[in-house]
Amino acid sequence: GDISDIDATSSVRGAIVDPPQPSTNQWHAAGNRSSDPGGDRQRKKNSPEGTPSSHTQPQIEIQIEIQRKGLNADIVKAIQQTAELPSFPINHRSGEKRPPLSDQAISQCHKALWHTLDTTTYVLPNNETFVITGDIRDLWLRDSAAQIHPLLVPSVYNGQSLVQYDRKLERVVSGLILKTARYIRFDPYANAFKLHGNTQYNYFERTALGRHGFISTWNYELDSACYFMRMLYFFHTNFPLHPILREKEVKEAVMIMVDVWIAEQRHEDDMYPTGRLFDCVHCNKPYRYNPKELSRGGKGSITNSSAGLTWSGFRPSDDPCKYGYLIPSNMFATVSLTYMMDLATNVWIDEPLSKKCRKLRDEIEAGIQRHGVVEHKKYGKIYAYEVDGLGKSLLMDDANVPSLLSIPYLGYKYDEQVYANTLKFILSRSDPYYHVGHSNRMEFSGIGSPHTSHIPNSIWPMAMIMEGLVSRNVTQKIHIVNQVLASSGSGWMHESFDPNNPKRFSRPWFCWPDSLFAELVMSLTDKCPQPSVGQYSIMTWSAEYAMNGTDFEKPASRMLNVKRPPQNPSKSKLVVMSVCVPGKRFSREYIHASLSNKRKFCNVWDAQCVLATELQGSDRKTYSAKWEKLHQINEMLHSDHDFDWIMWMDCDAVFTNIRIDWRKHLSPYLDDSKVLVASKDKNGINLGVLFVPHTREATRFIEEMYEMRHYIESHPNEKDWKDQAALNEMLAKDETLKNRISTDVPQGKINSFLDNPDGTRWSVGDWVAHQVWCQKDKNTKCDVNFISAARSIL
Q1: Bond before 513 cis per omega within 30 degrees
Q2: Could you tell me which CATH number the domain at 103-533 has?
Q3: How far apart are the first and last CA of the chain?
Q4: 526-563 pLDDT, tens per residue?
Q5: Count of C-beta atoms within a 10 Å radius of residue 21
Q6: Would you give the DSSP letter of residue 584?
Q7: CATH of the domain spanning 569-791
Q8: How do residues 277-310 score in pLDDT, each as one tens digit?
Q9: Burial state string for 70-91 with b = 16 or more CB within 10 A and e = fewer than 16
Q10: Would you list the domain boundaries of the chain?
């Protein structure tokens, strides 16, 4: 891992050295020592003076590091000449009398902090890391950088950031920096990417939506690169000597985005960046997107090229901008450019780049002052959300960050009075997306987004959390923590929720607000993070080398490429689930026969039976009852029940031979590395009888499938399928999903059809009978046959 031949002005494309061993963290900033056992002893051994690092003055330690590694002495300036980091959230960890934080808040802080690592992080070969958003299995430049941000926050544990304390977390973040840089080089206008570049897109997707190769969505969003630059700079403040900072691809990614921002100052003039770094498929022509989303043939609304501001096609919500100059994102850009000026001067020793960043920053700042501050008849001077530089402005705020609410959190040097006026506006009914509601004797208030119009008047937890992050009042911050906890019915932060019914929400697996919540709580207490309360595991570690973390890492995960031992089918525990609701479709006699049949099976095979005769889902009054299946399975997967597999049976499916040992019967097919096991019929995967393993991956899959109900209900499908339509939509969006679903089990094994005219017909001795084809015709004979089969169980 020696880098003595790499100075601050040059690097080789792709030349990342192997990370140092856990006992010698040579990339740490002065005064921030690794907690690894033996670390101080190793530094003492390597130090020319032989002085223990715990007694070494910072400047001396820096010089020792430079001498030992042969680094360019100019790098020392990077430690001493840093740009100012944001002062929010304010540290309220001690020194004030305030309401206590609940144990629930401490516990949820740990869960939220590690949620990204546990469920969305893939440490890859080639020094890369891939971080998905959650239920959308792609990497958003913005979301991924925001998700890992709490790991970079200074002094959260023993005076260190988490990346300084834990070598494994350092590898996670450095890998994400490199991966992001490579994606930016692939296409600087894309905002989200896939892990694999083999997705087949149709003509419209390739031309109008810009999708090809690794690109998941090609929405040009100014804030995407801002988040990359913030991540890079915060990493620099933690490890000013780290080789990733001098990696050629990383610096080039910054150069690319600075040139894009300069070109997009004159978007109206069809400017675009050129040069050797712009060799992507969409490069060397003006940006154009789907005309249905951006007006004027995909160019967007008219803007003023002399405004100084830089254009963005889309907001951080992924919604199109009404006017092209998004003020919060331009503010974030000025902060990010200040960071890059520092790196250009003190790490890359590139004064022309530093001057270019400064000039662009000053032009954008002048544009914000000239066009971004408007007069409101009630609130006085406030910051606008969007402007066109020609006199038009959009007065609102959106929950997604950067937002007007988040201005202090971004680190922007704002006008105190203008921001105070802006707060009064956006946290009032004057803001069209500020909503208030009541549930269980608690008032919920906050900013929402047009992005979730399918839940009217919804609030985003992200915005509630941001109110806390920018607050100077410790009591208010704790009140917000309690509000957010009360809104999170599933235990996680959601995208949005109905303030009058928090159980109605969107996106159950959305790690960005989880990370923001952890950051808020960490600003209030030293009790989070603590290894004794919560530990992490990396979801997938497939890098070339093994690396142990610290006491924050779960001991079971401290191995490379560890798979859970194969399940012993003879010891598997089963839960049988079914719902039969009286009504037009099922008579009481029918329901009694179905549920009694399933209870008999459970009694014989010592399985748990979870059977219901009424709907439980929170939105059962507005959505089809067909979603109850996914709701019930989701609830069971999140419960404390001890089981290995869920067997779901529709009401019209029953056991017809309980002498069959289900474990032996299904042994070749129950693979718990899959998220779903089912059979196929002529219409595709049949979800009337299915198996779901009790695993983290399967839980996320069911959550995502259940969440699809909002989309499916607003996009009726031809045959009024619900769960099937949701699965088909997921398969269409994620080609890798088919590899995680098993349909190898023969239909006759689990799903023989009664009265089936063209398929596997049930016969005496089969394990399960499923009435599918004639029940809707009110055919009395069909019901009689079904009830007879249910009662004459072998």
Answers
A1: no
A2: 1.50.10.10
A3: 68
A4: 999 999 999 999 988 888 777 888 999 987 655 433 33
A5: 14
A6: S
A7: 3.90.550.10
A8: 999 999 999 999 999 999 999 999 999 999 999 9
A9: ebeeebbbbbeebbeebebbbe
A10: 103-533, 569-791
